[in-house]
């Protein structure tokens, strides 16, 4: 997973990045972090249907998609999660909401965004938080 993060900012390396993520999923298929990175990769490359499919499939395969990690089994997620800025369900909801938004499905996006608690929003990386705030205001009319 760390390899995929290193490749993220290097330009035209999306195939290598996806291969690194797939390898992480092969090694630890029940952990949610690699599934999250894969959905992010799809989102960042404009592959919104693949992003949503990845999220749906990862809910079936991963053992920890429940409450945000601070309320759940954080002892089992903290080692990898802190390094990749993944802290639980709220990050999946953000990526899912953004994919719906980019597809023009504003009602579905708003439903995803409303599912993120105020506390969990503060756990999003700053870039994601700013994007969340901007898009949420735009589609909710608030």
As for the number of domains, it is 1
Write down the CATH class: Mainly Alpha
Which CATH architecture is right?
Alpha Horseshoe
Low-confidence stretches: 65-79
- Please state the CA-atom Rg, rounded to the nearest Å: 14 Å
CATH topology: Serine Threonine Protein Phosphatase 5, Tetratricopeptide repeat
Strand content: under 5%
Number of strands: 0
> What is the residue-averaged pLDDT?
78
How many helix segments? Answer: 9
Q: What level of helicity do the residues show?
A: 55-70%
Give the full name of the CATH homologous superfamily: Tetratricopeptide repeat domain
Distance between the termini: 37 Å
Biggest beta-sheet profile = none
- Envelope shape: globular
Helix/strand layout:
Blueprint: H1 2-8, H2 14-27, H3 32-44, H4 48-61, H5 78-84, H6 89-102, H7 106-114, H8 118-122, H9 126-140
Would you mind describing this structure in some detail?
This protein is an all-alpha fold. It has one domain: Tetratricopeptide repeat domain (Serine Threonine Protein Phosphatase 5, Tetratricopeptide repeat), CATH 1.25.40. Helices cover 69% and strands 0% of the residues. It has 9 helices and no strands. The chain has helices at residues 2-8, 14-27, 32-44, 48-61, 78-84, 89-102, 106-114, 118-122, 126-140. Helix 3 (32-44) runs parallel beside helix 6, helix 6 runs antiparallel to helix 7 and helix 7 crosses helix 9. The protein is globular, with a radius of gyration of 14 Å. The N and C termini lie far apart (37 Å).
């Amino acid at each position: 997973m760390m390899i995929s993060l290193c490749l993220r900012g290097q330009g035209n390396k999306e195939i290598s990045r996806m291969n690194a993520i797939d390898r992480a999923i092969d090694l630890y298929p029940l952990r949610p972090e690699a599934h999250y990175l894969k959905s992010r990769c799809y989102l960042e490359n404009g592959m919104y249907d693949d992003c949503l499919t990845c999220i749906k499939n990862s809910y079936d395969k991963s053992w920890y998609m429940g409450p945000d990690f601070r309320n759940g089994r954080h002892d089992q997620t903290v080692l990898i999660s802190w390094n990749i800025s993944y802290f639980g369900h709220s990050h999946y909801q953000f990526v899912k909401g953004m994919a719906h938004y980019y597809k023009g499905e504003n009602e579905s996006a708003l439903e995803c965004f409303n599912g993120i608690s105020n506390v969990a929003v503060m756990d999003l990386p700053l870039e994601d938080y700013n994007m969340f705030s901007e898009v949420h205001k735009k589609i909710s009319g608030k």
